[in-house]
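Folding Problem: From Residues to Backbone Shape
Fields: amino acid sequence; protein backbone structure tokens
RECORD BEGINS BELOW THIS LINE
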Amino acid sequence: METTLTAVGYLESAWRHGISREDINHALSNPVIVHYLDGYVIVVGPSRSGQLLEIGVNDDDLVFHAMHAREKFLRRK
């Protein structure tokens, strides 16, 4: 079964690290690892250039966080 996550919107904080909307959407459409946390998920997926990103999506399907993936989210729990 393939998992694809989509966002219905973006909070201002999503742009803090300079990740583009297109790269965020690409990462969400191509998840490698998904961490289900309390009230949000962190999706690790590739940007259009292949760089792994971590994308935070809250329970309202709003992206609130996007940056290059950190080691702690590259590990599967």
The longest helix spans residues 21-29. The mean pLDDT is 92. The CA atoms of residues 40 and 58 lie 4 Å apart.
